[in-house]
Specification:
It is a single chain. This protein has 378 residues and is of the alpha/beta class. It has three domains: 239 residues, P-loop containing nucleotide triphosphate hydrolases (Rossmann fold); 74 residues, no CATH class; 56 residues. The protein is built from twelve helices and twelve strands. The chain is globular. The termini are far apart.
Length: 378
Amino acid sequence: MALLEVHDLVTEFPTRKGVVRAVNGVTFDLERGEILAVVGESGSGKSVTSLSIMGLLQKPGHVTGGSITFDGKDLLAATEAEMEQVRGGQISMIFQEPMTSLNPVYRVGDQIVEAIRTHSDMDKKSAWARAVEMLRVVGIPSPEERARDYPHQMSGGMRQRVMIAMALSCDPKLLIADEPTTALDVTIQAQILDLIYKLRSEFNMAVLLITHDLGVVSEVADRVVVMYCGQVVEEGEKFELFEHPLHPYTLGLLESIPRLEDEESERLYMIRGSVPNPLSMPSGCPFSDRCERCLERCRHECPELSTVPGTTRRVRCFLYEDEAEVRRAVAATEAAHEVKARLEAEERERIERAMRSAGRARRTARGAQDATTEEGAR
């Protein structure tokens, strides 16, 4: 059984003009120790999905259908008291802007201590020691001193590290990271991503990464879920999706990424049109008006999310009812796995060469040291 199972999730927001279905039949699983990225444009339902899992939806938003199962427990049937134990203790979340998540009038160490003591029976002294240790784990220098700082005394990158330290302080099984690098400069982004990737293994936890940045996905994700207008339109392993996207929307997202090798005169690709009004969604595929491969039936019928025969990939598109398209998808998926295997083999060989080189250097150093010792003995 997967650690997290989201099945046919529906989340709605009643408004004066009608009901907005922000999440519409979302289904995915997350395995223990896995990093799953959920990507899509703003308004695609990524963050609402994560807030639905955490039980943090603001009224009048509410879940109207589907199921969310975490470690065998039905979260939608849990009481608020039970969810308070799950949040922070078993599932932790870090948000896009840490300055609005941290209390400006409390020292950061005290805020971590509060999170620890909420979910454990530690005394204040032990909890403070744990808070300082977690600040050290996430790479904050002089953690004993910085624990006494207020949020405004820290940079954006350090505040995000504090949020990660707080999120991991109770050893959660699942970390939800909602756009964790958006407000940070590129150098700090890379450091935060490296930190999340390293801590995933160190704490043996799963990570649900919410982002619109495919560069972030390429760095750390194992699998990718692509969302559009509240629906999952494609799901697959990272290498599969980047090497050969199946859904026209996923292809458009990847084509929109600037590339250094492009000619200066070449215009950046842009997906035509705009996201439909959530109060007046089309009767067919939500992407049909923007799709360059739109079929007539796409305007009247909405395809189901289904597995492409011969693969483990899922896509919501009528194109893959055609046998020729399926054959191309299978061949491309196999080619993607060959690329992945080759790159992994090259990486293993690089590491082995480095280890052999380090071993030779150590033996040479020991030999020189022994010779020096013998010379001194004479």
